[in-house]
Amino acid sequence: MKRVEGGICAVSGVSAAGVRRGRHGLALIVASGAAAGMFTTNRVRAAPLEVTAQNLAGGHLDGVIANSGCANAYTGPRGLEDARSMARLLAGFLGTDETKIGVASTGVIGRYLDLGQIQSLFLEASANLRSDGTASMDAERAIMTTDTRPKEIAVEHGGLRVAGIVKGAGMIEPNVATMLCFLYTDAVISAERLHDCLADAVKDSFNMLTVDGDTSTNDTVLITATGRATGREEDLREALRYVCMELARMMARDGEGASKYFEVYVTGAASEKDARLAAKAVARSSLVKTAVYGADPNWGRIICAVGYSGAEMDPTRITLGLEGKSRDGSASRVSLVERGKIVEDVLDRAQEIMKGEEIIINIDLSLGSASARGFGCDLTHEYVNVNANYTT
Question: Fewer CB within 10 Å: N-end or C-end of the chain?
Answer without folding.
Answer: C
